[in-house]
Amino acid sequence: MELREMISDRLVFAPGVWDGLTARLAEQAGFSALCASGFAISAALGYPDAELYTMSENLTAVRTIREASGLPLIADIDTGYGNAVNAARTARRFAAAGVSAVFLEDQRSPKRCPLIPGAEVELTDLAEAEGKVRAVKDAAGDMLVIARTDAKGEEALRRAEAYVRAGADLIMPVTKTFASVEEWARCHETVGVPLMATLTASAWTEREFTPEVMEQIGVRIALLPTQILMAVTGAAQATLRRLAAGEPPAEVSADALPHHDFVALIGMDEIERQQHKYLPAAV
To answer: How many CA atoms lie within 13 A of 105 on its CB side?
Structure first.
């Protein structure tokens, strides 16, 4: 089912993935959509979420995710990697990669992660930001365009209305945009299009945005951008520390996924079938 059809009548949860393995895990867990999390993709490259990686690096990760899973994919394209013309090219490249939706923010490049405590972000002028949304929409084809704003309060509402006029299909306030459920509800009433929320680990939205609340305030896509990343990192960190301290590998891996389950997860059975079908028999 297409993402546009999914969100027409129900709330869609999309976990943040960054490679083929996490995409497979999320699909097998039963999710109906995925998010190519910029935060996670950046972390996988060894960088903080400060737009240090390039559009091409992001696109490479997105293509890897798409190859591993056929689920609808929502991609983070940061600031579009330049002005409106650059952002339009970015949108065309991601649409060609099979992405179902992109979200674009209104910060100046290079962006700053709003999750960092005390971080102040610099926004682009409204006219420039509106033009960038319009350019992305014109280039997007059937792909949904989600306009993110890092503004707060009344300014966020003013920008959200402008982005909808420019063609945005959904509006994405960040976790710092509004401070209450009531403000989110007002945003939805003001813009008249669905909202996308990020339920970032340890943010107030993660605690308060139950499915019932989100249905009431017009949220149709709920991103889970950091939960898998934090869980995987914590498990890997603990295992590596035990190994580095000299703990026998057999004891360290006792609670890990068994080898035969892992190779099945990554599709080894299908590769074996293809090898038997197409490769000459061993002499």
So the answer is: 25
In the predicted structure, residue 188 carries a pLDDT above the cut 70: yes
DSSP 34: E
Helices and strands in the chain: count of H runs, count of E runs: 14, 8
If you count them, how many residues does the chain have?
A: 283
Q: Is 272 helix (H, G, I), strand (E, B) or coil?
A: helix
Between CA 2 and CA 4 the distance in angstroms is: 5
Q: What are phi and psi of 74, to 5 degrees?
A: -105, 125
Is the pLDDT assigned to residue 119 strictly greater than 80?
no
C-alpha of 215 from chain center:
20
Using DSSP, state whether 146 is helix, strand or coil: strand
Which of 117, 88, 96 is closest to 200 using CA atoms? 117
Say if residue 110 is preceded by a cis peptide, omega within 30 of 0. yes
**pTM for the whole structure:** 0.93
